[in-house]
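In this section we walk through a basic example: taking a raw amino acid sequence and producing a predicted 3D structure, encoded as discrete structure tokens. The instruction is simple. Fold the sequence below.
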Amino acid sequence: MIKTTNLKETDQIQPLILRAYIAKKITAMMQEYQVDNLDDIGCFVILEKEEFACVPMNELEFVEVLEIGAESYLHGVRIIDESYGEDIYLPVEVVRC
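The resulting token sequence is shown next.
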């Protein structure tokens, strides 16, 4: 599990396309909410495939399958309180018919 609250912490995210996607979201959120530290409003949590049990499905506001490049992620947002949320990404395999 990787928890990121600033751009520097995105350095450890793999693959690079996911790192770039999250860095762009962090920058946009910090500008939108006019904060210098993302941890004031939330964080990004990146899980490994085997960490599926760490996803609190019954606590998520929404869940979607997000495709970034050739990778697919289960993406959901958990609201911790009225001013703080977790943006969660779990790599998944999508079976195409």
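Looking at the output, two observations stand out. The chain has a mean pLDDT of 92. Strands lie at 2-4, 42-46, 60-68, 71-81, 84-92. In the next section we compare this with other chains.
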